[in-house]
Amino acid sequence: MKIAVLLGGSSPERFVSIASGRGIINALRDFGHDVTAVDPALGNDQIPEADLLSQGVGTIPPTQEILKKLSHKNYLSSVDSRLFDNVELAFIILHGKWGEDGIIQSLLELRSIPYTGSGVMASAIAMDKVMSKKLFSHHGTPTPDWVDYRKNSSVRSSSIKERISKIGYPNVVKPNDQGSSVAITIVKDESGLDHALDEAEKFSETVLVEKYIEGAELTVGILGDEPLPVIEIRPHDGFYDYEHKYTKGRTDYLAPAPIEKSFALELQELALKTFKSLGCRTFGRVDFKVGRDHVPYCLEVNTIPGMTETSLVPKAAAAAGISFSEVVKRIVELSLEGK
Fold first, then answer.
1. What pTM does this model have?
2. All domains of the chain in start order, with CATH
3. What CA–CA distance (Å, rounded) separates 232 from 217?
4. Active site residues
5. Closest residue by Cα to residue 72 from 4, 152, 12
6. Which one, of 242, 250, 4, lies nearest residue 107 by Cα?
7. What residues contact residue 177 under an 8 Å CB cut-off, 6+ apart?
8. Strand partners of residue 206
9. Suppose 122 and one of 118, 194, 290, 307 were both cysteines; which one would form an S-S bond, judging by CB atoms 3.0 to 4.6 Å apart?
């Protein structure tokens, strides 16, 4: 089968996407597929695959200077080019904006090219943290209290700070539509609020301020209709930020998580229910914090989770006895069902 692996992109998660794509490309080729690596941020000016895949993740996201050299406008020319002639499946591993938010999915649908993962609407909803939280609440999934605002309409107004004070401190400030913990700040008191809001506004028009839940960080991978074993995430210090996610040795992953079997089953059921409540399909990951009240609060649903060697879905699959290659194979098969 001719498969185009879409990786890289122009979001702050560019390097993570490339690392994810590297393993996927190797697995697909081992199964005998005709695979082409495509970075849509480069348009028709693709670089040699070896040069593209050699870019490492590093401990910090790409700088604004690096990202300014790329353009999400190139996604149009890329998908409309001969790069996608005769492609039977697009394997999307573009993390973050313009890859995980329904944009690239829409372009592929215009060319009638099947693709992996969730559809346009579910991708857009899951990427929008505020909209996701509204649906979590509607469907009965606990989620931390929050405040959100659009920076061009109400930035720094006294009413916003008053609303934030009602959810209390500490809280978590984050861009509404980014991943990999980009520009996320835990704010201990009001003195740190302005700086945190400044950082979040660099990456999103909408800022989310969420009540900080102190407790265990747990995540559940989803493969088809199967919730994978629960993983507990324990960063060695601080919180599970970009550096802790992509630096070996900075975080411990307990798979399966050391929790009661009955609670693990409850969490898996809640994760699958939440995943489906957003209309998601094929594969993904649902993240939780379990508070001192023992309530599992859902933070977000990831529709294109990382697939690097330190990523959570491959670790969860391994705990269930499913190899990385088998995960990739199942994603392909599930994505083609009904096509």
1. 0.90
2. 2-115 (3.40.50.20), 126-142+214-336 (3.30.470.20), 146-211 (3.30.1490.20)
3. 6
4. 13, 180, 246, 285, 287, 300, 302, 306
5. 12
6. 4
7. 97, 101, 127, 128, 129, 204, 206
8. 150
9. 118
